[in-house]
User: What shape does this take?
Amino acid sequence: MMVAEDQHPGSVFHGKIDETKVGAAGHSQGGGAIAAGADPIVDATIPIQPGPQGTVSDLKGPAFFVAGQFDWIVPSFYVQLRYSEAGHVPAVFGELRGSDHFFPGDTRIRLAGAVTAWFRFHLAGDENARGIFFGPTASCGICTDTQAWSKVARNAKAQAIPG
Assistant: This one.
């Protein structure tokens, strides 16, 4: 784990890891990010088109569930079902317009922007990133960006976070 590398004097990561701000993300079988998010050290999680690994009710912090509009490997309805199990933490569901399981065209750029914003807000305290996910629906970035997102949902805990 990176925390061990932070403690190892010979590592390029020595002294560079903030162990109080940890995120977990994973794609497809990397849906194991949900399992990782059950560890109390993990502050925020991003399951991207997640497989069946992990128990959503074990997540310890906010989660951004990402689906692809045309993903037939891990269909959007499945990702949305997993998101719906996260009522105990702030959770956002986003279906990336035009994306399949492999992020064709500019879908990977839109995904990278959203993933970065999620971690920038939750791990770095970047207030500029807050409005991408939170606040009134009329001003929530992904809620109003219908060119990038074909479907968005935010649970009650996420809706309670001010924009």
